[in-house]
Design a protein that fits this description.
This protein has about 240 residues and is mainly β. It is built from one helix and 17 strands. The longest helix is centred in the C-terminal third of the chain and has 12 residues, at about 220-230.
Length: about 240
């Protein structure tokens, strides 16, 4: 794998609430399940939520080999581990072996994934500090790509209605994760193409954004990072 860096003695890289993607190597399908770090003992074990699929915990038992992936400081990290113990009560969790080596791949600062999802925009007054909604119509568009820091949007509106520095509020779906509301974005570029007006937006996380989710916890920013994580995968070592 290009740009692969392997660390044999990893430093403390974990935090409670860190979003994970877990794949069972025995499945051979590459399916990824969302999970969250609940705790760990350095160089001994990691505890994470037991992922559910269609309302049931995914089938795994002690000794099952798996691969964990997550994003940390702009890099995609992964490691092979195994299930040490499973428990459903008082809450479902997996006890995993602590990694002996990490595989790290730097991500582009604005690494994007393709998307074809509806998005709704609302203009706000100039100046991110106030963000008072302007009395205007909600603008519907198509989200064409997405990253943890911004997105590209296709609009069937005149190009003149948008300009660099324009502040918007966005509402859209992160497929498989949740519905984002009230996310602030600043227009960085505008262009007219054959299929309509294309707008590049940079996100501003101000604490007013929210996400409605099922079976996944975290902030909007972490949800976006999780989306990017799902779209990238490590080659089998």
């Amino acid at each position: 794998m290009s740009d692969l860096i392997v660390y044999r003695h990893p430093a403390s890289f974990l935090e409670v609430g860190l979003s994970l993607q877990l794949s069972l190597l025995s499945e051979g399908t590459g399916a990824q399940y969302g999970s969250t770090v609940l705790g760990w003992k350095q160089r001994s074990w990691i505890v994470c939520e037991w992922p559910f699929h269609f309302g049931q915990p995914i089938p795994c038992a002690a000794g099952s080999a798996c691969l964990l992936r997550y994003i940390y400081e702009g890099k995609m990290i992964g490691y092979r581990t195994e299930v040490l113990h499973t428990q459903l009560q008082p809450f479902p969790f997996l006890l995993l072996a602590f990694p002996s080596a990490l595989e790290e791949v730097p991500l582009r600062k604005h690494g994007r994934v393709s998307a074809q999802e509806p998005i709704v925009l609302l203009q706000v007054e100039q100046g991110i500090s106030h963000q008072t909604p302007v009395q205007s119509l909600r603008i519907g568009g198509l989200l064409t790509d997405l990253s943890a820091s911004g997105c590209a949007i296709l609009l069937q509106r005149p190009m003149q209605e948008f300009f660099p520095g324009m502040v918007l509020r966005a509402e859209f779906e992160i497929v498989g994760i949740g519905h984002v509301n009230n996310l602030t974005g600043v227009v960085r570029n505008v262009s007219m193409q054959a299929d309509g007006t294309h707008v590049g937006v940079e996100f501003r996380f101000d604490g007013k954004e929210t996400i409605e989710y099922r079976g996944w916890g975290g902030s909007v920013k972490k949800a976006l990072e999780s989306c990017i994580l799902q779209k990238h995968s490590f080659e089998s070592a």
